[in-house]
Amino acid sequence: MLFRADILRGIAEGRISLAFRRWRRRPPADGSTLRTPIGVLSLDRVRIIDEGDITADDIARCGATSLAALRDEIRGDGTLLRIELRLIGEDPRLALRDRAPDSDEALAIAARLARLDASSPWTIRVLQMIGEAPGTVSHVLAGQFGVETPVLKRRVRQLKELGLTESLEVGYRLSARGRAVLDQQHRDGA
């Protein structure tokens, strides 16, 4: 579930507390969370609705300028969801990526990287590619690595979950944690 930057600002400022989305899969559960560039959002209440059930209050709460503008935004296929949401805190990966792992964390990260590499080794090479060329657009990295762009993006997200990479406006870079892990891997002969 993606939000435009202006909507995220409105959520962070408390002006926006509602979203409408078309959904093709099973809707998220009440109370589920979503990490965004502004932090973690709580999806407090998720309901399936009809377009005709949207109220004037809903339009104001979701940051739309009019019902017509909101209808333009929610055009398309899928079930229409009304999602009450709020910012509940910072993305925990932000603090994680700024600190080097202690010895126990380093072992846990190495074990996780080994599990990710179980079917085909890729983690260290992707970290190296990002470290050597930060800000490189994903499709270029994917081509260099010999995989489709969605595959590379999924792999980078897995590394991001460990606090090893950061997304830039274009491309990625290693976090301080990622550099420390890559340096340790080099010292260990990986």
Could you walk me through the main structural features you see in this protein, from its secondary elements to its overall organization?
The protein is of the alpha+beta class and 190 residues long. It folds into two domains: 5-90, Archaeosine Trna-guanine Transglycosylase, Chain: A, domain 4; 93-187, Orthogonal Bundle (Arc Repressor Mutant, subunit A). Helices cover 45% and strands 20% of the residues. The protein has nine helices and six strands. The strands form two sheets. A four-stranded antiparallel sheet has the order 1-4-3-2. It has a two-stranded antiparallel ribbon with strand order 5-6. Helix 7 (138-145) packs across helix 8. The model has no long low-confidence stretch (mean pLDDT 91).
Identify low-pLDDT runs: none
CATH superfamily of the largest domain: Winged helix-like DNA-binding domain superfamily/Winged helix DNA-binding domain
Strand order of the largest sheet: 1-4-3-2
Question: Helical region count?
Answer: 9
CATH class of the largest domain: Mainly Alpha
Q: Percent helix among the residues?
A: 40-55%
Instruction: Estimate what percentage of residues fall within beta strands.
Output: 15-25%
* Biggest sheet architecture: 4 strands, antiparallel
Number of domains: 2
Rg from C-alpha positions? Answer: 20 Å
Mean pLDDT across residues: 91
Shape: elongated
- In CATH terms, what is the architecture of the largest domain? Orthogonal Bundle
Assign the CATH topology of the largest domain.
Answer: Arc Repressor Mutant, subunit A
Order of helices and strands: HEEEHHEHHHHHEEH
Distance between the termini: 37 Å
| Structural category | alpha+beta
Task: Give the tally of β-strands.
Answer: 6
